[in-house]
């Protein structure tokens, strides 16, 4: 199954179903269910703006899963900022894509593992833990 690493607090927000657009500078043809990996780095400025306690964020682990059902290409900063309540980002640069997500859900127990760039495959043994 595919997995995608996200910085905290964004990984937590996607797993909670509160962040429904993940922004990236690259597009993808992938559609479907994927695991959410929380990277070892935290965007502390964003966590502070979102009133999230960094000490409670899990790092370096698979923490949940979500479903990517489409991709939106942002042409203008105005379009990008119009969706701010769904992606929580303020930095616009071209190119910018929004991965449209639904059904975010946290795992009962995080699974510690290193992340990678882009979508990557994870072992089927993890599937038995979900």
Structure characterization notes:
This protein is an alpha+beta fold and 130 residues long. It has one domain: Hypothetical protein (Archaeosine Trna-guanine Transglycosylase, Chain: A, domain 4, Roll). Helices cover 17% and strands 43% of the residues. The protein is built from 4 helices and 6 strands, in the order βαββαβααββ. The protein has helices at 10-15, 44-49, 77-82, 84-87; strands spanning 2-8, 21-24, 32-42, 61-74, 96-112, 119-121. The chain has a 6-stranded mixed sheet with strand order 2-5-4-3-1-6. It is globular. 29% of the residues are buried. The model has no long low-confidence stretch (mean pLDDT 90).
| Total DSSP helices | 4
The total number of structural domains is: 1
CATH architecture verdict: Roll
For the record, the CATH class is Mainly Beta
Order of helices and strands: EHEEHEHHEE
List keywords for this structure.
single chain; 6 strands; six-stranded mixed beta sheet; 130 residues; 17% helix; alpha+beta; 4 helices; Archaeosine Trna-guanine Transglycosylase, Chain: A, domain 4
How are the SSEs ordered, and which strands pair?
Elements: E1 2-8, H1 10-15, E2 21-24, E3 32-42, H2 44-49, E4 61-74, H3 77-82, H4 84-87, E5 96-112, E6 119-121
Parallel strand pairs: 1-3
Antiparallel strand pairs: 1-6, 2-5, 3-4, 4-5
What's the short version?
The chain is an alpha+beta fold. It has 4 helices and 6 strands; from the N terminus they run βαββαβααββ. The radius of gyration is 14 Å and the shape is globular.
């Amino acid at each position: 199954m595919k997995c995608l690493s996200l910085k905290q607090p964004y990984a937590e927000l996607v797993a909670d179903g509160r962040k429904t657009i993940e922004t990236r500078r690259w597009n993808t043809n992938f559609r479907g269910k994927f695991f959410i990996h929380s990277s070892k780095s935290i965007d502390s400025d964003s966590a502070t703006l979102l009133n999230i306690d960094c000490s409670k964020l899990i790092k370096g682990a698979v923490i949940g899963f979500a479903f990517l059902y489409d991709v939106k290409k942002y042409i203008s900063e105005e379009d990008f900022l119009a969706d701010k309540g769904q992606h929580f980002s303020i930095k616009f640069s071209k190119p910018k894509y929004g991965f449209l997500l639904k059904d975010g859900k946290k795992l009962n127990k995080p699974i510690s593992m290193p992340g990678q760039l882009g979508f990557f495959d994870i072992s089927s043994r993890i599937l038995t833990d979900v």
